[in-house]
Specification:
It is a single chain. This protein is α+β, with helices and mostly antiparallel strands. It folds into two domains: 9-39 and 216-343, endopeptidase fold (from Nostoc punctiforme) (Alpha-Beta Complex); 83-204. The chain is built from eight helices and six strands; from the N terminus they run H-H-H-H-H-H-H-H-E-E-E-E-E-E. It has helices at 29-38, 51-118, 122-128, 132-204, 207-213, 230-241, 259-269, 278-282, and strands at residues 286-288, 298-301, 307-313, 316-319, 328-331, 337-342. The protein has a six-stranded antiparallel sheet with strand order 1-6-2-3-4-5. The chain is elongated, with a radius of gyration of 32 Å.
């Protein structure tokens, strides 16, 4: 299988990509430890393996790491969504509690007024009254107050049930978020382990073989064909600006990217919201054949669509290859294509 795995730099940075306007990229202590381990020139390859066999192992590890990265991106996206939903639910619970407090206060005021008016049997009150006509008029008012009080009590009970449901939902979402955080951690560790093994294999190659392996094979294509829409043209213009920016797994711009983060960011500059993972992006538009591909179309790779790039014309795509490499051009046929999507 032809591979696009040709890094342009030796180091395989393991920064978790949180490169967003609202949140800076941060290396955890575990990731920093793993990154330090990657720079150690420990040779762990089979001493009998040829350079070609070692490179094949590195390609396989990069593919496995990319699949784990897409799983990480999916879990991380879910965690972000849950955090927002929990914040909204907590706001709703707070507003619901304030409403219930107001309703209780109003009911307390009505009950106090009724008590002060004389909460005794109406027949007995009429018999003892020195002003029967006045009492009858007053009792009619009290009946209306009682009816209103009963209605407000019903609304209070309804509001209390709704508040309990909101609290239960918030609690469920918090538990879901905790499980999602655990999944994010599992995927993170898997990616780091795969990349650490790949780096050790690269370190086992001679400098000449390592340099040959790390050279990119793509070049900026001659402009052939026009984008299919104004938004595709805007996405093409944006992704050209990202050429040379580093791959950081889990990142979606603007300073660094993983493969699906790059295409999501580029279309975001065109005002189009794409899903976070390459698998979801494959289904984010109309499928076309490779022969019909136009600049701006998304090209997904492998049967599981675990890698993605943007077609630029001239038989080239722009993509974020893997840690240690920068966003670059490569031939569209660099690996088996699973689909071409027109957004």
């Amino acid at each position: 299988m032809a591979s696009h795995r040709r890094p342009s730099q030796l180091g395989l940075g393991l920064g978790i990509g949180r490169d967003r306007s609202a949140r800076a990229t941060v290396l955890s202590a575990a990731a920093a430890t793993a990154a330090a381990a990657l720079t150690a020139p420990t040779a762990t390859a089979d001493p009998q393996a040829s350079p070609a066999e070692t490179k094949a192992q590195v390609d396989r590890l990069f593919e496995e790491a990319e699949r784990a990265t897409q799983a990480y991106d999916k879990a991380d996206e879910k965690a972000d969504r849950l955090r927002q939903e929990i914040a909204d639910a907590q706001d709703g619970v707070a507003r619901g509690q304030e409403r219930i407090n107001r309703m209780r206060g109003e009911l307390g005021s009505l009950a106090g007024a009724q008590y002060r008016s004389g909460g005794i049997d109406p027949t007995l009150a009429l018999m003892l009254s020195e002003d029967p006509d006045g009492y009858l008029a007053k009792s009619t008012t009290l009946d209306r107050i009682n009816a209103r009080q009963a209605g407000r009590l019903g609304k209070l009970r309804t509001a209390q049930r709704a508040l309990a449901q909101e609290r239960d939902e918030a609690t469920r979402k918090l538990a879901d978020l905790e499980e999602t955080r655990k999944a994010v951690t599992r995927h993170k560790r898997k990616v780091e382990a795969k990349l650490a093994r790949a780096q050790r294999l690269l370190n086992s190659l001679s400098p000449q073989d390592r340099s040959a392996f790390m050279e990119g094979s793509g070049a900026a294509p001659a402009l052939t064909g026009a984008p299919s829409s104004d938004r595709a043209a805007a996405a093409v213009a944006a992704i050209r600006q990202a050429i040379g920016r580093p791959y950081v797994w889990g990142a979606n711009g603007p300073g660094s990217f993983d493969c699906s983060g790059l295409t999501q960011w580029a279309y975001g500059q065109a005002g189009v919201g794409l899903p976070r993972t390459s698998q979801a992006q494959r289904n984010a538009g109309r499928q076309v054949s490779l022969s019909e591909a136009r600049p701006g179309d998304l090209v997904t790779y492998r049967d599981d669509a675990s890698h993605i790039g943007m077609y630029m014309g001239g038989g080239q795509v722009v993509h974020a290859p893997y840690p240690g490499a920068s966003v670059r051009y490569d031939p569209v046929g660099m690996m088996p294509i699973s689909g071409v999507t027109r957004v």
